[in-house]
Amino acid sequence: MSAFSSSPALFSCVGRGGFAGRDRSFRCSVDRQALFNRIAPLYDNLNDLLSLGQHRVWKRMAVSWSGAKIGDSALDLCCGSGDLSFLLAEKVGLAGKVTGLDFSKEQLSIASVKQASLWNSCYKNITWVEGDALDLPFPDDYFDAVTMGYGLRNLIDKWAAMKEIHRVLRPGSRVSILDFNKSTDIYITLLQEWMLDNVVVPVATSYGLTEQYKYLKSSIRDFLTGPEQEKLAKDVGFAKAKHYEIGGGLMGALVATR
């Protein structure tokens, strides 16, 4: 059966820096944790509706790019309700182990309920951990593969997050990070913003989640482009990094090898 544990560092968007910086980051982390707790009950249904089910294809691609295989120990950061964690469990099999880490207790509760209701025996090898993506509670060189779905964009200190991923990965292993793409193509950017304004937010509004989904547009605008993500990965020590545009350029996946 799964274990559900808690780390003392709960907020995955906590930043680094002086006292004032920590204070602002703490307020940000509390706000974002509350946001993800609020949307947790509807998160899976909204993902299916807003992406027309395509998010499941993108997530399978991301897990494949992680290189996870039978017998591996894999980590799914910012795991949410567990979609990538379950896909990783299928990759590593009964002989492997998956850890899903998130700062939202509500999301982890939903993931745990899903785990108990699903038939695949390999899902029993998933452990859920409430913790901080900027201060991972794992030793160096611990995992054979790492995934992150729609998490890096929401972290205050992206450099620290990538550094932590690099630390816990074994040499030669890969991280695969799926997120919205901040395109350098103005036409893709305009299409993305139009869809957010005219599809995503109105649909979220019908579920009473207007404010929770309005932040998407600004978070993508403040995110890193593909080339910037590649540079970040190499700056923290990854040997290779490649960013792929998928979903017509609306989504992206960073694949980096330690």
From TrEMBL:
Principal subcellular localization: plastid
Compartment list: Plastid, Chloroplast
Protein name in the entry: 2-phytyl-1,4-beta-naphthoquinone methyltransferase, chloroplastic
Pfam families, sorted: Ubie_methyltran
Record has Transport as a keyword: no
Catalytic activity: demethylphylloquinol + S-adenosyl-L-methionine = phylloquinol + S-adenosyl-L-homocysteine + H(+)
Enzyme nomenclature, EC number: 2.1.1.329
Known function: Involved in the biosynthesis of phylloquinone (vitamin K1). Methyltransferase required for the conversion of 2-phytyl-1,4-beta-naphthoquinol to phylloquinol.
GO biological process: methylation; phylloquinone biosynthetic process
Family: Belongs to the class I-like SAM-binding methyltransferase superfamily. MenG/UbiE family.
InterPro entries assigned to the protein according to its UniProt record, in alphabetical order: MenG, SAM-dependent_MTases_sf, UbiE/COQ5_MeTrFase, UbiE/COQ5_MeTrFase_CS
Annotated HAMAP family: MenG_phylloquinone_subfam, MenG_UbiE_methyltr
MF (Gene Ontology): 2-phytyl-1,4-naphthoquinone methyltransferase activity
Entry-linked SUPFAM superfamilies: S-adenosyl-L-methionine-dependent methyltransferases
Keywords noted in UniProt: Chloroplast, Methyltransferase, Plastid, S-adenosyl-L-methionine, Transferase
Cellular component annotations (GO), alphabetically ordered: chloroplast
